[in-house]
Design a protein that fits this description.
Blueprint (H helix, E strand, L loop, with lengths): L1 H4 L18 H16 L3 E4 L5 E5 L10 E7 L12 H16 L8 E6 L12 H7 L4 H4 L10 H6 L20 E9 L4 H5 L3 E7 L2 E9 L3 E2 L11 H19 L2 E10 L5 E2 L2 E9 L3 H22 L2 E10 L2 E2 L2 H8 L9 E4 L4 H7 L4 E6 L15 H19 L1
Parallel strand pairs: 3-4, 3-5, 5-15, 6-14
Antiparallel strand pairs: 1-2, 2-4, 6-13, 6-15, 7-11, 7-12, 8-10, 9-11
Bound molecules: glyoxylic acid and manganese (II) ion (2 copies).
One manganese (II) ion binds next to loops.
Length: 402
């Protein structure tokens, strides 16, 4: 399975992946998933928005109303790694294969899921698919989202042939009906498991985080003839804001990143009229996150006064603190032949966080990442660790069926 996926959406220059939702590479992955489910006799369900589930074991389940879901996402960030998302989907299918080899007849229907636009790389809203499924975001809100080219979400959906599905955007069947547990396996996105010497970890929770659009406007003018004291240059406001965000995060043990900016008109010999920067901010608790963003905005406004520019801040996507069901985490983490799996917090967002917030008891398993790098082509996991991950997921699903 890994070999079949690895060329899809891969850049020849960087070796990274460009798998934005409703574009060619991601559609190819969705077709691959439909084929993989069909080959295994899993009954496919979709919501017309790109979220998919392949169901196994419904006919023999003795607990048909306690559905168990496991999966992740197939989309990537721009120039992302191979593992963030697809490892959870491939491992879920492989875990079903493994359980069948072991002769397991699941007492609960087990679904393998793919959630659409987890990264928010095209429409800006992280975990779009799982938010729509859980009602955390409404279709009325989502239908207004536009990508960088101005394409609205319903038009992007209409432009693709969603394989095996009825692409009636907005008319979602309830894919989560009867789901009482969710398990997401994911590549680890830091180096905690490397340092602890474990191949597998279990998530305790997710830091609150958000994306905030800083719009800074000034006055376009000639780069040569405009005296320095006569300028209203939003690039200066942006530069000071980025430094302030970095300083504020370092002082408070938080994370703050400006990873994307747009400059208008983006000419070498003109003072820009507008700079838009996206702040990604993450903190241990929600109050600290609000305070961090407020502090960065204050610094931006102060600098704007000096520069003669204006600043407006819009929150595009905010996710609260997630604490995964602690008893479930302990149950899954404990009592393995190799000893307990470590239980760790993460600063990365996941569909698992959205489902947990919606009240579905949720577990996350992490697979060790030797590079510790993620959201980059350098993201990594070894084949032996990935296979340990498949066994860990199969063991976890079996436990949850007992
Ligand atoms: C998603 O991977 C995020 O943490 O931004
Ligand atoms: Mn990611
Ligand atoms: Mn992910």
């Amino acid at each position: 399975m890994w070999g079949a996926l690895s060329p899809v959406g891969r850049s020849a220059q960087s070796g990274g992946y460009f798998r934005q939702p409703f574009r060619t590479a991601e559609s190819e992955l969705r077709s691959w998933f439909v084929e993989a489910c069909t080959a295994r006799g899993l009954r496919l369900e979709g919501d017309g928005l790109g979220n998919l589930v392949g169901w196994w074991g419904e006919e023999h389940a003795t607990r048909p109303d306690e559905r168990l879901l496991t999966g992740s996402h197939l989309d990537s960030v721009l120039d992302g790694g191979a593992y963030d998302g697809p490892l959870g989907v491939v491992s879920a299918l492989a875990a079903v294969d493994r359980m069948r080899e072991r002769g397991v007849v699941p007492s609960r229907p087990i679904g393998v899921s793919v959630f659409v636009e987890e990264e928010g790389s095209r429409f800006g809203l992280a975990c779009l698919g799982s938010r729509l499924l859980t009602g955390a975001t409404t279709w009325e809100h989502a239908r207004e989202l536009r990508d960088r080219d101005g394409v609205a979400l319903p038009d992007a959906l209409a432009a693709v042939d969603l394989p095996g599905l009825d692409p009636g955007a907005g008319d979602a069947r309830d894919l989560l009906a009867g789901v009482t547990t969710f398990v997401e396996l994911h590549v680890e996105q830091g180096r905690a498991l490397v340092d602890l010497g474990h191949a597998i970890g279990v998530a305790s929770g997710i830091w609150p985080h958000g994306r905030y659009r800083f719009e800074m406007t000034g006055t376009a003018d000639h780069a040569g003839t405009t005296r320095m004291e006569d300028r209203a240059d939003p690039m200066l406001t942006y530069a000071m804001t980025a430094l302030a965000a970095d300083e504020q995060a370092r002082l408070t043990g938080a994370r703050a990143t400006f990873g994307r900016i747009e400059v208008e008109p983006n000419g070498t010999n003109a003072v820009p009229s507008r700079v838009t920067g996206w702040l990604d901010a993450r903190c241990e608790d929600e109050a600290a996150l609000s305070e961090l963003v407020a502090a960065v905005e204050r610094r931006a406004q102060q600098r704007a006064e000096t520069d003669g520019t204006a600043v407006r801040v819009v929150a595009e996507s905010v996710s609260g603190l997630v604490t995964f069901d602690p008893a479930l985490a302990r149950h899954v983490a404990g009592d393995h032949a190799v000893g307990d799996w470590p239980v760790l917090p993460t600063q990365a967002g996941h569909d698992a966080g959205v489902l947990s917030t919606a009240g579905i008891p949720t577990v996350m398993l992490f697979v060790r990442n030797p590079s510790g790098v993620s959201h980059s082509p350098a993201e990594s996991a070894t084949v032996p660790d990935c296979l340990v991950g498949v066994d860990a997921l199969a063991d976890t699903l079996e436990r949850l069926c007992r």
